[in-house]
Write a structure and sequence with these properties.
The chain has 140 residues and is mostly helical. 76% of the residues lie in helices and 0% in strands. Helix 2 (8-33) packs antiparallel against helix 3 and helix 4 (84-107) packs antiparallel against helix 5 (116-139).
């Protein structure tokens, strides 16, 4: 098994996931740094969804909470020899959902739950679980 040959599509999807998190990092850092009196590492507790600083920070934090588990799941699936086509499908589904979640969080200021971004968060979570099941099947 050659990871770079067999899992090229999944690896490209992983690249997109990681690039998305890096983009979120720069966007959140840049938005916060432009605020008067910005203190590194501290978000004003009075901010809420009406603030882009809050939304960009929460988007980045949400990725930091979810992407590490997904990366572990993805690499487990690849190293276990899971179906390359199914792995790629689940990786790309997660990648697209993270981008849609980010775009909706940046664009829609709402305290409503569920919000439109919630659906993409949930679909991404299902993709992660499906990939974990796929990895488990490959291990058996």
């Amino acid at each position: 098994m050659n990871l770079t040959t067999d899992y090229t599509a999944a690896l490209w999807g992983l690249l997109v996931v990681i690039a998305t998190v890096i983009a979120q990092w720069f966007i959140a850092s840049g938005a916060k740094a432009k605020q008067p009196g910005a203190v590194p590492g501290k978000i004003d507790e009075s901010l809420s969804h009406e603030s882009f600083v809050f939304r960009s920070h929460r988007t980045f934090m949400n990725s930091l909470e979810n992407v590490p588990t997904f990366l572990g799941t993805a690499f487990l699936a690849l190293f276990a020899g899971a179906s390359a086509q199914w792995a790629a499908l689940f990786v790309w589904l997660f990648a697209v959902c993270r981008i849609a979640h980010m775009a909706l969080y940046y664009g829609i200021s709402t305290e409503q739950n569920p919000s439109p971004r919630t659906w993409f968060f949930l679909i991404g979570g299902v993709a992660n679980i499906a990939l974990l099941v796929l990895a488990g099947i490959a291990l058996v």
